[in-house]
Structure formats: C-alpha cells, structure tokens
Design goal:
Blueprint lengths: L3 H19 L3 H15 L4 E7 L6 E7 L9 E2 L4 H9 L3 E3 L17 E9 L2 E10 L7 H79 L3 H29 L2 H5 L2 H15 L3 E6 L8 H22 L3 E9 L2 E8 L15 H11 L3 E6 L5 E8 L2
The protein binds adenosine-5'-diphosphate and magnesium ion.
C-alpha cells in the first residue's frame, strides 16, 4: 500500500515527465514544470530563474502566482535567497521571519519558501523557487520532492541547450565547409587563368620568335637573328621574375622555410617597390616560429590588405607591423591613403569579408579603421594557440 502522500508525489512526477516529453520547446517545458511543482507542493507562488551565462545574473523566466511584470526582472548572482542558492549550488528552506545572515536584501516577512538550484555537471543553470503565503511550512520531505521535480526540469534545460549548441555547430560547420570549398575552387580558377592568359601566351610568343630566328639564320641574316635572340632572353628573364612573383603569391616557399616575419617583409618590399611607394616593416615576434596555420592566416591577411592598399588607397606609405602581446599576435597594416566609408558595403567584393572570416574562425578579432582622407588601419589579433 502506497501512502497517500507518496502517491501524490508519484503522480506529480509521472505527470511532469509526460509533460516534458510532450512539450516541444523549453519555454513550454519550464512553464509546465513550475505550474506542476507549485500545484503539487501547495505553493501560492513559484518561479524559475535562469542564469544568464554572459552576465551571470538570474532572470525570472517563468512565474506562477506572482504578478506578470516580475517576468524578465533580473537579480545579481549572490543577491537574496535565490542568488545565494545559485552561487552555492545548495537548496534552502526558510520559514517565517528570515534573519539569516547568509542572505542579503530578503523581505523578512517572507513566509515559507523553498529555493532549489537547477544544475547540470555542477554548473548552475537556474533556480526554482516556491513560496507558501499561509498554512504549513515546507518540511525536509517537501524539499526532497521539490528537488526531484527540479532535477527533471534541469534535464529539460540541459537537453535544450545541448540541442541548440549542436544545431549551431552543425550550421556553422556546413557554412565553413561551403566557404572553404568555394574559396579553394576560386583560387584554383584564378591560378589556372593566370597560367593560361599569362605564361602560356608568353611562351607561345617566344616560340614564334625562335621560329623566326631559325629562318633568319637559314637565310644567313645573323645580325637580325642575334637581335631577336636577345629579345627572347629578355622575355625569359621577365618570365622568370613573373613566375617567381606568382609562386610567391600562391604560396611563398620562404613562409615554410624561414617563417612569417621575413616572408612578410619580403612581400612588403616587393609590393612597395613594384608600385612606387614606401614600405616600413617591424616585427617583435623574435626567431620563434608560430603555428603554421596562424602564419598562413596572417600572411594571407597581409597579402590581401596590401592588395587593397595598392588598388584603392592611393597611398605613398604603408606600414606593416607584427607584435606579440600576452599570448596573442597582432598584425597591423596602415596606409596613408584616402581611407573609405565602411558603412556602404560594396556588392561582389569579398576581400574584406574573407579576411574577417579567416581571422574570426581562428578565434581572433579583425578591425578596420578607415579614417577618410587620412588612410586606413587594419588590424588582426589572433590567439597564439
Ligand atoms: N586600404 C584601403 N584604402 C582605401 N579603400 C579601401 C582600402 N581597403 C579596402 N578599401 C575599400 O573597401 C572595398 C572593399 O574591399 P575588398 O573587400 O577587398 O574588395 P575589392 O578589393 O575586391 O574591391 C574596396 O573596394 C575599397 O573601396
Ligand atoms: Mg580587395
């Protein structure tokens, strides 16, 4: 024979577990939980407060009994009974005049009240509160029962946040994959086009010149043949520089061999001298190598930033600076050009977006500070790990 009290408890637990299964979203589940708990424990008022993970404050999220306007109010963690419960991850039962030195800012005429932490893996997610205005005080037995109900509601929160995290992650991963594949294809297309329109055309041109030299030599026109041969030599010299530059742009071997700072400096010097502006480089990274992926990201960022300086800034000077601070590395590219207006986003221009995406994906921060008329400062801050 099950005692009357236990039967009621079992029924309440069964009802709650059924409701939790049926309710589809967390709001509904917590609303049901507090309503059922208040009902099963003869409470006049009840509320669920959830911890805001960013601010650490407790927000009254669901209330049963008290006025509507309480919903949405926040309490600093540590304040009042619920605040104490959230901070210590321990339940509290009080009755009558509350003169407990543990709690600050508590209405002393509070009647019987229960406050129970909702937690998962030792982390407090929220607090469930029940208050009886009159009648019997909450006993240890009530606390036990209320704790069972609270634990069930905690599982619902845990499950919902796990789902949300999984969904976010999945969406992020598929966006990433798409972007990565897209970027890779675009890069290959660009390389193929460069080889086709540049080197291949030029090689064909040289082939024709040599063909002509041969027929000149057959006819004994040596001087003309020598002249054309010299031309071809110049062409080859240009080609060698072109291919070197091209390789440097695709993936400079020195990035792997001697590291980020010297490679970046060489790139800056090359870009500056090719485009008639002054380049200034400084680095306090020292001789230690960074993680390869970080070196690559920073190199690509500097490369695109310099391309922008050349293409858009009309600058006469450009500064590239590498710094290590705490456990972060900071790249800054500053030009003294025209600056621009970031509020108008150009369609079909992805350089900035790609830089930002790369940096943020690696857990860093990306800032662009255009100062119209006075140039642009671009900074990328990456954690070294
Ligand atoms: N250093 C800079 N100085 C002036 N304008 C810049 C600079 N960097 C970027 N911009 C502006 O921002 C726009 C977007 O840059 P980006 O996303 O790299 O696209 P794209 O270089 O293909 O135009 C550029 O078109 C240009 O107007
Ligand atoms: Mg660009």
């Amino acid at each position: 024979v099950v005692a009357e009290g236990s039967r009621r408890e079992l029924e309440a637990i069964a009802r709650l577990s059924r409701s939790l299964l049926e309710a589809t979203d967390l709001g509904e589940q917590l609303g049901l939980s507090i309503r059922l708990a208040a009902d099963a424990l003869d409470a006049d008022r009840g509320s669920i407060m959830l911890v805001d993970l960013e601010s650490g404050e407790l927000e009254i999220t669901y209330a049963e009994g008290p006025p509507e306007e309480m919903v949405g109010q926040t309490v600093p963690r540590g304040d009042g009974i619920a605040g104490w419960v959230a901070l210590h991850n321990e339940p509290v039962v009080v009755h009558g005049e509350v003169e407990d030195p543990r709690f600050e800012g508590v209405n002393p005429s509070l009647k019987s009240a229960l406050s129970i932490p909702m937690f998962s893996n030792g982390i407090v997610l929220g607090v469930l509160n029940l208050v009886r205005e009159s009648g019997e005080r909450f006993e240890e037995e009530d606390l036990r029962f209320a704790t069972s109900l609270t634990d069930m509601a905690s599982v619902a929160i845990e499950k919902a946040s796990l789902y949300a995290r999984l969904r976010d992650r999945e969406a992020r991963m598929s966006r990433l994959l798409e972007a990565a594949i897209g970027a890779q294809e675009q890069e290959r297309r660009r390389i193929a086009a460069e080889i086709h329109d540049g080197f291949l055309q030029d090689l064909s041109g040289m082939f024709l010149k040599i063909e002509r030299t041969r027929s000149l030599l057959q006819r004994g026109q040596v001087d003309e043949a020598i002249e054309i041969t010299e031309g071809v030599q110049n062409d080859i010299r240009d080609q060698v520089k072109g291919i070197r530059d091209f390789i440097f742009e695709v993936r400079p071997p020195s990035l792997d061999q001697i590291g980020l700072a010297p490679t970046m400096e060489a790139m800056l010097n090359r870009v500056a001298s090719d485009n008639g502006l002054k380049g200034y480089f400084s680095s306090d990274l020292g001789p230690d190598r960074l993680v390869e992926s970080i070196e690559t990201i920073l190199y690509r960022t500097a490369q695109e930033a310099l391309r922008n300086v050349i293409k858009h800034a009309g600058a006469t000077e450009v500064y590239v600076k590498l710094d290590r601070k705490d456990s972060r590395v900071i790249l800054e590219i500053e030009d003294n050009g025209v600056g621009f207006d970031t509020s108008t986003k150009k369609k079909g221009h992805f350089g900035m977006d790609t830089m930002r995406e790369r940096i943020e994906l690696a857990g860093g921060d990306f800032h662009v500070m255009p100062r119209p008329g006075r140039g642009t400062i671009l900074s990328a801050i990456l954690p070294l790990e």
